[in-house]
Amino acid sequence: MTLNILFFSITIKKRYVSLEEAANQEMIEKLYEEHKDRQISMHRYM
């Protein structure tokens, strides 16, 4: 009889975001939302 056992060890660490990186991400999300709104408004005109 053969017994094959495989173990995985997963470690999850919280990722700390710098203030600059958080501000950059917020700006990207804001620009994305504005662009999406612009696309929706242009689609309504057609």
Secondary structure topology:
Layout: H1 19-45
User: Please, what is the average pLDDT?
Assistant: 86
Helix content: 55-70%
Task: Give me the secondary-structure category.
Answer: mainly alpha
End-to-end separation in angstroms reads: 71 Å
Summary, kept brief:
With 46 residues, the protein is mostly helical. Helix content is 59%, strand content 0%.
Structure commentary:
The chain has 1 helix and no strands. The N and C termini lie far apart (71 Å). It has a domain at 18-46. With 46 residues, the chain is mainly alpha-helical. InterPro entries: YrzI. It holds the Pfam family Bac_small_YrzI.
Keywords:
mainly alpha, single chain, 46 residues
